[in-house]
Amino acid sequence: MDIISLLEKNKDKVIEESCRQINEVKLKGYTKVGSSITKQKLTSLYKKVIECANKKELIPMLNYTEKIAKERFASGYDLHEVQTAINALEENIWQIIFKNIKPDKLAESLGLVSSILGAGKDNLARNYVALATQTKASTINLQSLLSGSESIADNG
């Protein structure tokens, strides 16, 4: 079975298990919006994975993660929450791949999915950082963090 067919065939299973995992860890933002909205968000992300895998290009994922970074940041989600949700989806896709793809095709299938989601997570993080630096983060004091590194460097 090719990766696109596999992803399409197992969409509901992957999304349901990913939702269950997200609910278990009780991520603040996802708990607040509820299971139904969380499922919609994961379904949209999953569809982007399929689209990118089918087209063999990352642009749809990069555009999508830029959009969700803005939306989730504005809604008060922490970056780690969104990354955790993506990781849950990725883990469940991997499980489906390991169970259904022949060993000689594993590297290609895992590489494709990991590249798509890895690029998405990287883009999401970069957009979150850009958004965070546009607002004042009163809880971060970089000077106190950096001052500790000088004493380590002097002693080492």
Give a quick precis of the structure.
The chain has a single domain, classed as Globin-like.
Walk me through the topology.
Elements: H1 3-9, H2 11-25, H3 28-33, H4 35-55, H5 59-74, H6 79-100, H7 103-134, H8 142-155
Helix pairs in contact: 2-4, 2-6, 4-5, 5-7, 6-7
Question: What would you note in describing this structure?
Answer:
With 156 residues, this protein is mainly alpha-helical. It has helices spanning 3-9, 11-25, 28-33, 35-55, 59-74, 79-100, 103-134, 142-155. The chain has a single domain, classed as Globin-like (Orthogonal Bundle). It has eight helices and no strands. The radius of gyration is 18 Å and the shape is globular. It starts with a helix and ends with a helix.
Tag the structure with descriptive keywords.
single chain, 156 residues, mainly alpha, Globin-like, 8 helices
CATH C-level class is: Mainly Alpha
CATH fold title = Globin-like
In total, the number of domains comes to 1
Summarize the main sheet. none
Multimerization state? single chain
What portion of residues belong to β-strands? under 5%
Mean pLDDT: 86
Helix content: over 70%
Give the helices and strands as they follow along the chain: HHHHHHHH
Basic shape: globular
Strand segment count: 0
Q: State the separation between the terminal residues, measured CA to CA.
A: 55 Å
CATH architecture classification name: Orthogonal Bundle
Pick out the low-confidence regions: 137-141, 148-156
User: How many individual helices?
Assistant: 8
Radius of gyration, Cα only, in angstroms? 18 Å
Question: Would you identify the CATH H-level superfamily?
Answer: Globins
Helix-and-strand structural type: mainly alpha
